[in-house]
């Protein structure tokens, strides 16, 4: 089974923390992280956790999301807000089944993020994600309780045979270098500044959904670097021309 850690960002209800811990135990997950919880983790959490109280006891509490994500190779966010509008790319999501299918080929550390019960993950956290997962629900009442949503996603991961997830994939550091190279290329080629952030998020999601291998990473990086080398002479010419009286 891959290393999957469940990260609850600013949880507000200790009962939900306990229920999520119980679902984790049901589906073979053990590592729980809490980012600046807005509630205590006490009797109610342990009551809801039932025999999964050891997950509660070993949960790690962090002041920031950065701390919780340390060591993660893939960051996956969850959201009840979904869209099919490609222009709103940060909110384009895959289903839990699609996520499980893609993740089975990944052998790194996965951080699975769940947001606050009332507002979910904020925009900053969403933009940090390599992939976004959303559960298809009825339009009459689309938003699920966070512990119920977690159970659905855990089930899909477990059902897809987590124990056979094996491959040599690009790690989180590789992906970050790839994203930075892409950002540099956007700047070097004069891509509109006001579009760069959303376009970078789009690129990150494409790479995240693809779960690229080491070979694919090196090939893509090589293409981006070659594009940078081709773009730089043109950029220098334009700068020199601009300096002439």
Could you explain the architecture of this structure?
It contains ten helices and six strands. It is of the alpha/beta class and 245 residues long. It folds into two domains: 3-164, 3-Layer(aba) Sandwich (Alpha/beta knot), CATH 3.40.1280.10; 172-240. The chain has a six-stranded parallel sheet with strand order 3-2-1-5-4-6. Strand 4 (74-78), helix 5 (96-103) and strand 5 form a beta-alpha-beta unit.
Topology readout:
Blueprint lengths: L2 E7 L4 H13 L4 E5 L7 H7 L3 H6 L1 E3 L2 H5 L4 E5 L17 H8 L5 E6 L8 H6 L2 E3 L12 H14 L12 H17 L4 H18 L3 H30 L2
Parallel strand pairs: 1-2, 1-5, 2-3, 4-5, 4-6
Helix pairs in contact: 1-2, 1-7, 5-7, 8-9, 8-10
Overview features:
245 residues, alpha/beta, Alpha/beta knot, 2 domains, 6-stranded parallel sheet, 10 helices, 12% strand, elongated
């Amino acid at each position: 089974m891959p290393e999957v850690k469940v990260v609850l960002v600013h949880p507000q209800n200790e009962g939900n923390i306990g229920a999520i811990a119980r679902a984790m135990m049901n589906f073979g997950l053990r590592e729980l992280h809490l980012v600046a919880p807005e509630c205590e983790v006490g009797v109610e959490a342990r009551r809801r956790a039932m025999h999964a109280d050891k997950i509660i006891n070993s949960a790690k509490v962090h002041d920031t999301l950065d701390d919780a994500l340390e060591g993660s190779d893939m960051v996956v966010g969850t959201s009840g807000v979904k869209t099919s509008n490609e222009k709103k790319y940060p909110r384009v999501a895959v289903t839990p089944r699609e996520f499980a299918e893609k993740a089975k080929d990944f052998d790194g550390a996965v951080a699975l993020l769940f947001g606050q019960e009332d507002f979910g993950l904020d925009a900053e956290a969403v933009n940090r994600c390599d992939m976004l997962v959303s559960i298809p629900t009825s339009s009459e009442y689309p938003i699920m309780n966070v512990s119920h949503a977690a159970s659905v996603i855990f089930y899909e991961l477990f059902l897809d045979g987590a124990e056979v997830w094996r491959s040599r994939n690009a790690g989180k550091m590789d992906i970050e270098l790839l994203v930075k190279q892409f950002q540099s290329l956007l700047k070097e080629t004069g891509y509109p500044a006001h579009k760069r952030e959303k376009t970078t998020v789009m690129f990150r999601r494409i790479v995240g959904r693809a779960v690229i291998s080491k070979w694919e990473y090196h090939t893509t990086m090589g293409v981006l670097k070659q594009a940078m080398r081709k773009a730089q002479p043109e950029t220098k010419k334009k700068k020199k021309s601009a300096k002439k009286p």
